[in-house]
Amino acid sequence: MKTVSLIIDGKKLTAPKGERVLWAALDNDIYIPHLCAHHDNSAPDASCRLCWVEIENKSQPVTACTETVAEGMVVNTRGEAAIRLARTALELLLASNAVDCANCAKSGNCELQKIAAHLKVNLKTRRFRKILRDLPVDTSSPLFTYDPNKCVLCGQCIWVCRKQLGIGALGFAHRGFNRRMTTFNDQPIGQSACAECRECVNICPTGALCFK
Ligand code: FES
Fold it and tell me: Among 35, 115, 156, which is best to mutate for testing ligand 1, by the most ligand atoms less than 8 A from CB?
Protein backbone atom coordinates (compact mmCIF):
# COMPACT_ATOMS: atom_id res chain seq x y z
CA MET A 1 0.00 0.00 0.00
CA LYS A 2 1.38 3.42 -0.93
CA THR A 3 1.59 5.93 1.88
CA VAL A 4 2.24 9.64 2.25
CA SER A 5 3.97 11.47 5.10
CA LEU A 6 2.34 14.48 6.68
CA ILE A 7 2.24 16.46 9.90
CA ILE A 8 -0.90 16.98 11.96
CA ASP A 9 -0.69 19.22 15.02
CA GLY A 10 3.10 18.88 14.97
CA LYS A 11 2.97 15.08 14.88
CA LYS A 12 4.73 13.36 11.97
CA LEU A 13 2.73 10.46 10.62
CA THR A 14 2.01 8.39 7.56
CA ALA A 15 -1.35 7.66 5.99
CA PRO A 16 -2.50 5.58 3.04
CA LYS A 17 -2.43 7.51 -0.25
CA GLY A 18 -5.92 8.80 -0.97
CA GLU A 19 -6.95 8.78 2.69
CA ARG A 20 -8.94 11.73 4.04
CA VAL A 21 -7.32 14.00 6.60
CA LEU A 22 -10.06 13.16 9.12
CA TRP A 23 -9.21 9.45 9.24
CA ALA A 24 -5.46 10.06 9.13
CA ALA A 25 -5.86 12.19 12.26
CA LEU A 26 -8.24 9.87 14.09
CA ASP A 27 -6.09 6.82 13.32
CA ASN A 28 -3.25 8.64 15.07
CA ASP A 29 -5.24 9.65 18.15
CA ILE A 30 -5.79 13.23 17.02
CA TYR A 31 -9.44 14.05 17.52
CA ILE A 32 -11.34 16.14 15.02
CA PRO A 33 -15.07 16.68 15.70
CA HIS A 34 -17.28 14.95 13.13
CA LEU A 35 -20.84 13.71 12.86
CA CYS A 36 -21.69 13.01 9.25
CA ALA A 37 -18.58 11.12 8.08
CA HIS A 38 -17.99 7.38 8.30
CA HIS A 39 -14.74 5.67 7.40
CA ASP A 40 -16.49 3.24 5.05
CA ASN A 41 -18.35 6.00 3.23
CA SER A 42 -16.14 7.20 0.40
CA ALA A 43 -18.50 10.04 -0.49
CA PRO A 44 -19.37 11.86 2.76
CA ASP A 45 -22.14 14.47 2.68
CA ALA A 46 -19.91 16.95 4.52
CA SER A 47 -23.10 18.38 5.94
CA CYS A 48 -22.33 18.77 9.65
CA ARG A 49 -19.49 21.29 9.02
CA LEU A 50 -17.74 20.35 12.25
CA CYS A 51 -14.48 18.90 10.98
CA TRP A 52 -12.71 22.13 9.98
CA VAL A 53 -8.92 22.12 9.87
CA GLU A 54 -6.31 24.54 8.61
CA ILE A 55 -3.72 23.45 6.07
CA GLU A 56 -0.46 25.26 5.49
CA ASN A 57 -0.52 27.34 2.29
CA LYS A 58 -4.31 27.21 2.04
CA SER A 59 -6.02 30.53 2.65
CA GLN A 60 -9.22 29.07 4.13
CA PRO A 61 -9.99 26.19 6.49
CA VAL A 62 -11.20 23.00 4.80
CA THR A 63 -13.33 20.08 5.96
CA ALA A 64 -11.12 17.18 7.03
CA CYS A 65 -13.62 14.56 5.87
CA THR A 66 -13.32 15.69 2.25
CA GLU A 67 -9.67 16.77 2.12
CA THR A 68 -7.25 14.11 0.87
CA VAL A 69 -3.84 13.70 2.49
CA ALA A 70 -0.81 14.78 0.46
CA GLU A 71 2.92 14.30 0.80
CA GLY A 72 4.39 16.97 3.07
CA MET A 73 1.00 18.36 4.07
CA VAL A 74 0.95 20.32 7.34
CA VAL A 75 -2.40 20.29 9.13
CA ASN A 76 -3.51 22.27 12.17
CA THR A 77 -6.71 21.06 13.82
CA ARG A 78 -6.65 23.78 16.47
CA GLY A 79 -6.28 26.93 14.39
CA GLU A 80 -8.42 29.87 15.44
CA ALA A 81 -10.38 30.09 12.18
CA ALA A 82 -11.11 26.36 12.08
CA ILE A 83 -12.25 26.29 15.70
CA ARG A 84 -14.45 29.35 15.18
CA LEU A 85 -16.20 27.72 12.22
CA ALA A 86 -16.68 24.44 14.09
CA ARG A 87 -18.08 26.24 17.14
CA THR A 88 -20.57 28.15 15.02
CA ALA A 89 -21.70 24.94 13.31
CA LEU A 90 -22.17 23.25 16.66
CA GLU A 91 -24.02 26.18 18.20
CA LEU A 92 -26.38 26.36 15.22
CA LEU A 93 -27.02 22.65 15.60
CA LEU A 94 -27.67 22.99 19.32
CA ALA A 95 -30.13 25.84 18.68
CA SER A 96 -32.62 23.35 17.22
CA ASN A 97 -31.73 20.32 19.32
CA ALA A 98 -33.69 19.22 22.38
CA VAL A 99 -30.46 18.71 24.46
CA ASP A 100 -31.99 16.76 27.32
CA CYS A 101 -28.91 14.94 28.64
CA ALA A 102 -30.34 14.38 32.13
CA ASN A 103 -33.12 12.23 30.67
CA CYS A 104 -31.26 10.69 27.73
CA ALA A 105 -30.17 7.04 27.60
CA LYS A 106 -27.13 7.96 25.47
CA SER A 107 -25.79 10.50 27.97
CA GLY A 108 -22.13 9.78 28.57
CA ASN A 109 -21.93 7.99 25.24
CA CYS A 110 -23.05 10.83 23.01
CA GLU A 111 -20.92 12.33 20.27
CA LEU A 112 -22.60 15.71 20.75
CA GLN A 113 -21.38 15.84 24.36
CA LYS A 114 -17.89 14.86 23.27
CA ILE A 115 -17.77 17.51 20.55
CA ALA A 116 -19.10 20.22 22.87
CA ALA A 117 -16.43 19.37 25.45
CA HIS A 118 -13.71 19.37 22.79
CA LEU A 119 -14.78 22.74 21.39
CA LYS A 120 -15.50 24.16 24.86
CA VAL A 121 -19.07 24.98 23.93
CA ASN A 122 -21.82 24.83 26.55
CA LEU A 123 -24.55 22.41 25.44
CA LYS A 124 -27.05 24.99 26.70
CA THR A 125 -25.44 27.76 24.66
CA ARG A 126 -27.62 30.80 24.03
CA ARG A 127 -25.58 32.28 21.21
CA PHE A 128 -28.42 31.61 18.77
CA ARG A 129 -32.11 31.76 19.57
CA LYS A 130 -33.42 28.33 20.47
CA ILE A 131 -36.13 27.09 18.10
CA LEU A 132 -37.26 23.57 18.88
CA ARG A 133 -39.02 21.36 16.36
CA ASP A 134 -41.26 19.68 18.94
CA LEU A 135 -41.84 16.55 16.84
CA PRO A 136 -43.52 13.38 18.20
CA VAL A 137 -41.27 10.54 19.37
CA ASP A 138 -41.71 7.36 17.31
CA THR A 139 -42.04 4.36 19.65
CA SER A 140 -43.57 2.01 17.06
CA SER A 141 -40.54 -0.27 16.72
CA PRO A 142 -40.47 -3.07 19.31
CA LEU A 143 -36.73 -2.58 19.67
CA PHE A 144 -35.95 1.12 19.68
CA THR A 145 -37.32 4.64 19.81
CA TYR A 146 -36.70 7.50 17.41
CA ASP A 147 -36.74 11.00 18.84
CA PRO A 148 -36.37 13.43 15.91
CA ASN A 149 -35.88 16.29 18.36
CA LYS A 150 -32.47 14.85 19.25
CA CYS A 151 -31.48 14.06 15.66
CA VAL A 152 -28.48 15.97 14.31
CA LEU A 153 -29.29 15.08 10.67
CA CYS A 154 -25.91 13.43 10.22
CA GLY A 155 -27.41 10.85 7.84
CA GLN A 156 -25.45 7.95 9.31
CA CYS A 157 -28.57 5.83 9.91
CA ILE A 158 -29.76 6.44 6.35
CA TRP A 159 -26.35 5.55 4.95
CA VAL A 160 -26.03 2.31 6.93
CA CYS A 161 -29.61 1.26 6.15
CA ARG A 162 -29.39 1.95 2.43
CA LYS A 163 -25.78 1.72 1.35
CA GLN A 164 -24.41 -0.87 3.74
CA LEU A 165 -27.42 -3.12 4.21
CA GLY A 166 -29.44 -2.39 1.06
CA ILE A 167 -32.70 -1.98 2.99
CA GLY A 168 -33.44 1.70 2.43
CA ALA A 169 -36.13 2.03 5.08
CA LEU A 170 -34.88 5.45 6.14
CA GLY A 171 -34.39 8.71 4.28
CA PHE A 172 -34.49 12.48 4.60
CA ALA A 173 -37.67 14.45 4.02
CA HIS A 174 -38.26 18.20 3.63
CA ARG A 175 -35.68 20.97 3.50
CA GLY A 176 -34.12 23.59 5.71
CA PHE A 177 -35.42 23.79 9.28
CA ASN A 178 -38.07 21.15 8.51
CA ARG A 179 -35.56 18.58 7.29
CA ARG A 180 -35.75 15.33 9.20
CA MET A 181 -34.97 11.67 9.01
CA THR A 182 -38.07 9.60 8.36
CA THR A 183 -39.39 6.53 6.53
CA PHE A 184 -41.03 6.14 3.13
CA ASN A 185 -44.37 7.94 3.19
CA ASP A 186 -43.59 9.07 6.75
CA GLN A 187 -44.84 5.80 8.22
CA PRO A 188 -44.00 4.92 11.84
CA ILE A 189 -40.75 2.95 11.81
CA GLY A 190 -42.51 -0.15 13.16
CA GLN A 191 -44.76 -0.19 10.09
CA SER A 192 -42.06 0.64 7.57
CA ALA A 193 -39.59 -1.53 5.64
CA CYS A 194 -37.37 -1.59 8.74
CA ALA A 195 -35.78 -5.05 9.10
CA GLU A 196 -35.04 -4.49 12.80
CA CYS A 197 -31.33 -5.11 12.29
CA ARG A 198 -30.62 -2.28 14.77
CA GLU A 199 -27.61 -1.00 12.84
CA CYS A 200 -29.15 2.48 12.70
CA VAL A 201 -29.30 2.55 16.50
CA ASN A 202 -25.72 1.38 16.78
CA ILE A 203 -24.46 4.07 14.43
CA CYS A 204 -26.55 6.99 15.73
CA PRO A 205 -24.12 9.41 17.43
CA THR A 206 -26.76 10.97 19.71
CA GLY A 207 -29.85 9.92 21.63
CA ALA A 208 -32.12 10.19 18.58
CA LEU A 209 -32.18 6.41 18.07
CA CYS A 210 -32.12 4.50 21.37
CA PHE A 211 -32.76 0.91 22.33
CA LYS A 212 -35.86 0.38 24.44
S1 FES B 1 -17.60 15.21 9.29
FE2 FES B 1 -16.84 16.62 7.84
S3 FES B 1 -18.54 17.89 7.43
FE4 FES B 1 -19.33 16.37 8.80
Answer: 35
Q: Is 3 helix (H, G, I), strand (E, B) or coil?
A: strand
Is the Cβ atom of 51 under 6 angstroms away from ligand 1? Answer: yes
Task: Answer yes or no: is the C-beta of 151 below 6 A from any ligand 1 atom.
Answer: no
**Cα gap 110→131, rounded to integer Å:** 21
Asked whether the beta carbons of 195 and 203 are under 8 A apart, the reply is: no
Contact present, 20 and 66 (Cβ < 8 Å) = yes
Q: 41 falls in which pLDDT band (50, 70, 90)?
A: confident
Rg (CA), the chain: 18
- Cβ–ligand 1 contact at 53 (below 6 Å): no
Closest CA to 99 of 77, 76, 124, 117: 124
Does 113 have pLDDT greater than 80? yes
49 lines ligand 1 (CB under 6 A): yes
Q: In 3-state terms, what secondary structure has residue 9?
A: coil
Check: pTM over 0.85? Answer yes or no: yes
Dist. CA 69–CA 83, nearest whole Å: 20
